[in-house]
Design goal:
Elements: E1 44-51, E2 66-70, E3 73-74, E4 77-83, E5 99-101, E6 110-117, H1 123-137, E7 146-151, E8 155-162, H2 165-173, H3 186-189, H4 203-220, E9 226-233, H5 274-286, H6 303-315, E10 318-324, H7 334-347, H8 358-368, E11 372-377, E12 388-395, E13 401-403, E14 407-409, H9 413-416, H10 421-431, E15 444-449, E16 458-464, E17 472-473, E18 479-490, E19 504-511, H11 513-520, E20 524-530, E21 535-545, E22 551-560
Parallel strand pairs: 6-7, 6-9, 9-10
Antiparallel strand pairs: 1-11, 1-13, 2-3, 2-12, 4-11, 5-15, 7-8, 12-14, 15-16, 16-20, 17-18, 18-19, 18-21, 21-22
């Protein structure tokens, strides 16, 4: 990948278009096209895990062995490919010392994210779960690129994607839990959320959980391939809801009958049968275990948030693998286990519970999601009304079980882009945090130029890959685009620098067809200047597409003489 020799851009908004005054250069080298779900192309992608009767992966399926249906109607398969385990990652591109990039450093068919839940459940189980994870990493296993996050008051990245188990182990040991339970306030302790049956959580914890899952979906959306989210927690107070399920039911509204014909197996201790689930739900309800997304006697509903999260996870190709940190439990764990199986079913993952060897569940999750088939099709139904569409995949091969996400929301691209501006601003502010995970939705390179003398300012020049941003074609025949860039400044310890203004520069305009074609062969520019005192600084660089709402971030260092 090559950067412009001189990143000097002049951005003119004349005649409603862009013009550039820069050296000509080829665009950044693009990775091989990845199959993604985009409302603009109407291409639906489904990752399918196939196993035999012993649970071993089936690696020799052919396209003719599979039939895909949407809402019961057969669909024409557009592409079919086998994705095998590939622990080797491509080395990061060689860039000049003063250039950074938001392009992911890991390139693999599948990525793993281990989410350690420290906000739901009891502290003793959190300590035990982390100890077992460290034991798994010490066992000499070979893993796909894996990242570790912790969910406490906010979502925090412990370590970015790596295949080095020793590095992950050391990172985990540096953030060990304290072993002391959270002290609940009077209002929280009196809440029906707190310590009810198998919950051990509260309303604030549920809000943090929902926000963290949504941010993870946004973060992982920029990475190609399948993403396996291994959620290690004692309490699973939320579930992924889809439309058509009545609310206010006395039973768990999240548990929906799903027969064997639908091809999904949640992989728990019991068979995935509708009657079993209904019995477990009834028993859990009778025993007082709150198991729905809204605990009993609570006035707060999370239905809207859950729908957004379900959509975001499915759109980002994230499969959930819940691992119960409570180990072997009592009967009042049945509600949480039902939630776990349901979450796994809907996203094509697998749930692990009723085991004290948590490391086995973590290892099985990593192995399970590393070998799969990538399928795609263009739906026959062209009515993009925002409704949920159920996907069903069948195989003619006897003895083969298939797991995949249950469907997707047929969201109109124009409607999906009309998100609340405050919500987008909050996400961008979070992405610019020093300890926030890196976003890869927008791909850019940026050159950091320190001031030559005290009379000048430092400069950050972005060169954004135009293939990663959205140009909207409107009735005027022009291609409309709007991209913002920003630079947040921190001390070497990661604290915000006082007086450093985190301003946002927005570039917007409309391109004629020939200008658009020329832009796609070059870079989209954005520039920020920094007026800083002499010293050493850490920078978080970020860009956001105002049309698609995708984000891209990167880290850099700067020395001001």
């Amino acid at each position: 990948m090559r950067l412009l020799n001189a990143l000097v851009f002049v951005f003119l908004l004349s005649a409603g278009s862009f013009s550039q005054d820069s050296a000509s250069s080829r665009p950044p080298a693009q990775q091989e096209p990845q199959t993604v779900l985009k409302a603009t192309t109407r291409l639906v992608v489904v990752d399918v895990v196939a196993t035999d009767s012993q649970g071993a992966p089936v690696t020799d399926l052919k396209e003719s062995d599979l039939v895909i249906l949407e809402d019961g109607r057969p669909q024409r398969l557009g592409s079919f490919s086998f994705q095998g385990a590939n622990a080797k990652t491509e080395p990061p591109p060689q860039l000049p010392q003063d250039v950074v990039t938001s392009v992911p450093r890991s390139s693999s068919n599948s990525l793993n994210v281990i989410l350690l839940d420290r906000i739901n459940g009891e502290s003793s189980n959190r300590v035990y779960a982390q100890d077992r994870l460290v034991k798994y990493l010490e066992s000499g296993v070979t893993i796909e690129p894996t990242a570790v996050f912790i969910m406490e008051k906010k979502l925090t990245l412990v370590h970015d994607f790596t295949t080095d188990t020793r590095v992950l182990k050391n990172a985990l040991n540096s953030v060990r839990p304290t072993g002391v339970s959270r002290v609940l306030g009077v209002d929280v302790a009196a809440s029906p959320y707190a310590t009810k049956g198998d919950f051990h959580t509260d309303e604030n914890a549920i809000e943090v959980t929902l926000r963290s899952l949504r941010l993870l979906a946004r973060t992982l959306a920029g990475y190609p391939g399948r993403k396996n989210l291994i959620w290690v927690s004692e309490a699973f107070p939320v579930n992924l809801r889809i439309e058509g399920v009545p609310t206010g039911s006395s039973l768990n509204p999240m548990i929906i009958a799903r027969g064997p014909a639908s091809g999904g197996s949640a992989g728990g201790a019991d068979a995935n049968a509708a009657t079993t689930r209904q019995q477990e739900t009834t028993q859990a309800q009778a025993q007082g275990g709150a198991s729905s997304n809204v605990p009993l006697n609570s006035g707060r509903s999370f239905e809207a948030e859950l729908a957004k999260i379900a959509d975001a996870l499915m759109d980002a190709h994230v499969a959930l693998y819940p691992v119960d940190a409570a180990g072997v439990g009592l009967a009042n764990r049945q509600a949480a286990q039902s939630n776990m199986r349901d979450m796994a079913d809907r996203t094509g993952g697998r749930a692990f519970y009723n085991r004290n060897d948590i490391e086995v569940g973590i290892g099985s999750s990593i192995n399970d999601g590393s070998i799969y088939y990538a399928l795609s099709y263009y739906p026959d139904n062209h009515q993009w009304d925002g409704r949920f569409r159920r996907i069903e995949i069948k195989t003619s091969r006897p003895g083969v079980s298939l797991r995949y996400r249950m469907g997707y929301y047929a969201v109109n691209s124009e409607d999906s882009d009309k998100r609340n501006s405050d919500e987008l601003a909050q996400e961008f502010a979070y992405a610019m945090g020093f300890d926030s995970p890196l976003f890869a939705g927008i791909r850019f390179q940026a050159r950091i130029t320190p001031p030559a003398d005290k009379s000048q300012k430092a400069m950050v020049s972005f060169a954004i890959d135009p293939h990663s941003i959205t140009f909207e074609s409107k009735d005027d025949g022009l291609q409309h685009v709007a991209v913002s860039c920003s630079v947040a400044v921190y001390t070497e310890k990661g604290n915000p620098v006082k007086g450093a203004r985190d301003e946002i520069t927005t570039m917007s305009g409309a391109l004629k067809p020939d200008e658009y074609q020329r832009m796609m062969r070059q870079y989209f520019p954005c520039k920020r200047t920094l007026d800083l005192k002499p010293g050493k600084y850490l920078l978080r660089l970020g860009a956001v597409d105002r049309n698609s709402h995708l984000l891209g971030t990167s880290n850099a260092s700067l020395v001001v003489p």
